[in-house]
């Protein structure tokens, strides 16, 4: 029997079995890789994206020493830039970036271990910079800075390790579609750098989720042409501009300006990294020294997107010319929020649109800002306002909003569309983050101008201009998004019953489960109802006797229909698939399918898919695409591989199967098709047998423990036969038997003999369970070598993706039902004790006190 053990197995194995194990694996693991090598192609093991990025960050972070992340990012992103342009030059003869001899990443890697490595790095980067007019852009980071990187052996080792980390990344096939390896790696690193940089330095990066909202609500979409212009006057690292361009089918014409020199250089590199080499990014203070001007006015664009620094106090320092930006009023000297807003407005063409992130104060502050706001509203320039959750941004924790400006049809605009999205987010470390469902809901609601109670409404200009509001745009004035107060009802406390208003507040549940309301609630008196069942029975009724099974059946049917509609597309995934387009199609259709479904919120359902996509499915698609791109198949993508243990890059994977033990142990990973899926499809009976044997083992172990707890404790007959954990030691039990026989102690002999029988029974059960598991593991491993392409596609699509999404959505049905149960039980408990009941209890207690006093002789 081969000693195959699952994760966590501690069993030793016979080393003589190793050749047999390797023979078993040779057909399963080696053939596909050997075939690739034989055909002259490089054997590539496709790692999960998530593992790659986390290891990249951990490795870089480990090597930075005491340097601040806002500085360290310059080194890391310069290396990322060098690797990308070098790889691209190898595969793209038309690359706009010329990589000269002696100016490539390969030259940097060749300097590994050199005593003068820092100086060599600077010279290599300088050659690339000179060849492309990128001096003072890509050479901002000094790789020979002893204060930041150390000196002597320290800098030599640090830079050698750093360049080694990037060596394994391959960007030759990278695509600028927003889902390529480079783009995601860059996004991952930037988010972590911003998180680590703190409030003072996090402003160079706008969270990707917020950027997605901004570009979608401003109107950039699949119909946007590449010649249309987008401008960010405070572009930071350029991430917002890139998100805007990525939303258009063929990109857009990009313009930007950034004040900070290092961040400007970062933005220039970022544009090249994402295939936008022709983007025009200017350096300087946008307010006091705008670079994009036409005569005495600022240049105009189709779209403006911006996340400027909040409430900057020094915005007027050096301001000499207004370039036609302040015709509707001069912002206050100590607050630059409206300076940026007015700059955005002036930068729009006659049909131009802008989306600007600003602090909530711009919506309601008075004096000069109030006057400007009134003038903009009167002219119809403000199309909408979206309130965002607090603590989204790296530079500040205060809540912000998006102000939408639109010059097109401004004269006829009769209201402002407001959205209060402040409560839609998830916690992510010490920050809040918009979920996919929050993004989709904001965008759908704003773009379709859908009014939703407590969330969004079109506010007429007459209401805004009313003297009681006086052009104040503070969202809570117009949208009440607060949770309704949970009122205590005095009459119900006095006379019992549940107020009908509390029952009616659950109407969306009753609409979905009308039978449940009839089963639980009945009228008591006018305005009040009562429970027909005990509180303890409410959950059973809700889950098992409410008609919930019909809801579940409908959910399953919708998911099945939805998946069937896209199965052919998923079946046809290849190296050219665009994952972003794929998941957008899947997600939008799923959301649409559930719009009419009672009980469930379609955006909650959408999040179940997107959560699974982000956690697992995206990695699966990436693995398949990578394997197919390297000449492999779905079947070869599912082959087991050895886990990666790379201490230098801090990458360590949890294995799915372990073979052997000790030094000869080999760990294997099955990313695409985990062993549980193989067992679930092909070895159901064998798994049932393993489960049965494990149940017997648990029973046998419990019997041993029970006997030891009674007879193996201090002063008991077998106290000397247990170890320091109170468990029987077989050798000590046998010794007790021998001593009892020799002394004629029949009682101890019988007790020890029973203990030995229990111990032997447990050992036999453990051996049987272990052998059955080993046989199942061996069969499972062999099965991977027998799988065809169609087998793997069916397992991944049906048993993994379809089944998991369906289970997650079904889980939402349960969760929502339990929310209803909790509310009903809370209301039932709240009004269970009436005034009459309390009077009765008080009378009973008074009688007991009188009785006790009488017994004590007190009258």
Characteristics:
disordered N terminus; 4-stranded antiparallel beta sheet; 31 helices; globular; 9-stranded mixed beta sheet; 859 residues
Mean pLDDT: 86
Find the structural class using helix and strand composition. Answer: alpha+beta
Shape: globular
Give the N-to-C terminal Cα separation. Answer: 86 Å
Work out the helix count. 31
Beta-strand residue percentage: 5-15%
For the biggest β-sheet, the strand order reads 4-3-2-7-8-10-9-11-14
Number of E-type strands: 22
Which percent range fits the helix content? 40-55%
Task: Report low-confidence residues grouped into runs of 5 or more.
Answer: 1-46, 174-180
Main β sheet profile: 9 strands, mixed
For the CA atoms, what is the radius of gyration?
Answer: 34 Å
Q: What can you see in these coordinates?
A:
There is one protein chain. With 859 residues, the chain is of the alpha+beta class. Among the domains are: 4-10 and 17-43 and 640-672, no CATH class; 686-786. The protein is built from 31 helices and 22 strands. A nine-stranded mixed β-sheet has the order 4-3-2-7-8-10-9-11-14, with helices on both faces. Strands 1-21-22-18 form a four-stranded antiparallel β-sheet. The longest helix has 42 residues, at 789-830. It is globular. The termini are far apart. The relative contact order is 0.08. Mean pLDDT is 86; it is low at 1-46 and 174-180.
């Amino acid at each position: 029997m081969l000693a195959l053990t699952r994760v966590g197995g501690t069993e030793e194995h016979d080393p003589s079995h190793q050749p047999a194990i390797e023979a078993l694996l040779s057909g399963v693991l080696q053939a596909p890789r050997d075939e690739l090598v034989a055909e002259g192609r490089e054997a590539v093991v496709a790692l999960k994206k998530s593992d790659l990025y986390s290891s990249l960050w951990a490795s870089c972070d480990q090597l930075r020493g005491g340097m601040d992340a806002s500085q360290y990012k310059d080194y890391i992103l310069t290396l990322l830039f060098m690797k990308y342009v070098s790889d691209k030059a190898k595969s793209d003869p038309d690359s706009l970036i010329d990589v000269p001899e002696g100016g490539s990443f390969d030259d940097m890697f060749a300097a590994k271990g050199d005593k003068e490595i820092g100086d060599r790095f600077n010279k290599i980067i300088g050659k690339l910079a000179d060849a492309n007019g990128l001096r003072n852009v890509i050479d901002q980071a000094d790789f020979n800075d002893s204060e930041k990187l150390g000196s002597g052996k320290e800098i030599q080792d640090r830079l050698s390790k750093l360049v080694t980390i990037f060596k394994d990344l391959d960007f030759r096939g990278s695509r600028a579609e927003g889902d390529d390896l480079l783009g995601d790696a860059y996004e991952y690193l930037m988010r972590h750098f911003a998180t680590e940089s703190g409030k003072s330095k996090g402003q160079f990066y706008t969270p990707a989720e917020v950027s997605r909202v901004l570009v979608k609500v401003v109107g950039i979409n699949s119909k946007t042409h590449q010649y249309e212009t987008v401008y960010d006057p405070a572009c930071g690292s350029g991430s917002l501009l890139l998100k805007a361009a990525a939303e258009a089918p063929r990109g857009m014409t990009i313009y930007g300006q950034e004040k900070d020199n290092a961040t400007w250089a970062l933005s220039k590199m970022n544009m090249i990294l994402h295939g936008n080499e022709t983007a025009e990014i200017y350096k300087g203070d946008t307010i006091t020294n705008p670079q994009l001007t036409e005569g005495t006015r600022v240049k105009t664009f189709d779209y403006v997107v911006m996340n400027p620094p909040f409430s900057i106090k020094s915005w007027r320092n050096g301001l000499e010319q207004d370039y036609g930006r302040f015709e509707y009023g001069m912002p206050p000297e100590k607050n630059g929020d409206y300076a940026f807003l007015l700059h955005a407005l002036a930068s729009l063409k006659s049909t131009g649109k802008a989306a600007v992130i600003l602090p909530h104060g711009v919506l309601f502050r008075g004096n000069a800002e109030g006057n400007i706001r009134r003038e903009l509203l009167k002219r119809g320039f403000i199309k909408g306002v979206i309130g965002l959750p607090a603590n989204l941004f790296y530079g500040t924790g205060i809540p912000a909003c998006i102000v939408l400006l639109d010059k097109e049809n401004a004269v006829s605009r009769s209201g402002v569309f407001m959205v209060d999205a402040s409560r839609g987010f998830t916690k992510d470390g010490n920050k809040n983050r918009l979920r996919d469902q929050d993004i989709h809901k904001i965008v759908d609601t704003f773009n379709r101008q859908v009014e939703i109670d407590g969330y969004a409404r079109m506010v007429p200009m007459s209401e805004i201009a009313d003297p009681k509001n006086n052009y104040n745009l503070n969202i809570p004035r117009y949208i009440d998004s607060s949770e309704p107060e949970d009122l205590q009802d005095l009459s119900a406390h006095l006379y019992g019953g549940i107020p009908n208003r509390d029952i009616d507040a659950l109407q969306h549940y009753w609409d979905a489960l009308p039978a449940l309301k009839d089963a639980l609630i009945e009228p008591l008196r006018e305005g009040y109802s009562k429970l027909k069942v005990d509180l303890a029975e409410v959950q059973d009724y809700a889950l098992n006797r409410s008609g919930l099974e019909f809801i579940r059946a409908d959910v399953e049917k919708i998911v099945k229909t939805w998946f069937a509609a896209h199965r052919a597309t998923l079946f046809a995934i290849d190296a050219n698939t665009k994952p972003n387009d794929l998941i957008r199609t899947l997600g939008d259709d799923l959301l649409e399918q559930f719009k009419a479904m009672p009980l469930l919120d379609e955006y909650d359902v959408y999040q179940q898919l997107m959560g699974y996509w982000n956690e697992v499915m995206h990695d699966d698609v990436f693995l398949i695409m990578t394997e197919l791109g390297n000449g492999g198949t779905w079947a070869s993508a599912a082959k087991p591989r050895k886990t990666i243990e790379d201490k230098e890059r801090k990458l360590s994977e949890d294995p799915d199967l372990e073979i052997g033990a000790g030094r000869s142990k080999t760990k294997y990973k099955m990313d695409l098709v985990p062993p549980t899926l193989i067992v679930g499809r092909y070895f159901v009976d064998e798994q049932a047998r393993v489960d049965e044997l494990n149940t017997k083992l648990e029973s046998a172990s419990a019997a041993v423990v029970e006997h030891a707890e009674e007879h193996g404790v201090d002063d008991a007959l077998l106290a000397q036969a247990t170890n320091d954990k109170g468990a029987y030691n077989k050798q000590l039990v046998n010794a007790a038997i021998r001593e009892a026989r020799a002394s004629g102690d029949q009682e101890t002999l019988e007790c020890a003999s029973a203990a030995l029988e229990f111990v032997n029974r447990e050992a036999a059960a453990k051996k049987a369970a272990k052998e059955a598991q080993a046989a199942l593991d061996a069969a499972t491993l062999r099965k991977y070598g027998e799988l065809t392409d169609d087998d793997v596609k069916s397992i991944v699509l049906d048993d993994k993706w379809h089944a998991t999404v369906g289970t997650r959505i079904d889980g939402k049905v349960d969760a929502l039902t339990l929310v209803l149960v909790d509310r009903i039980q809370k209301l039932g408990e709240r009004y269970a004790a009436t005034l009459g009941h309390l009077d009765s209890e008080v009378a009973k207690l008074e009688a007991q006190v009188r009785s006790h006093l009488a017994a004590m002789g007190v009258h």
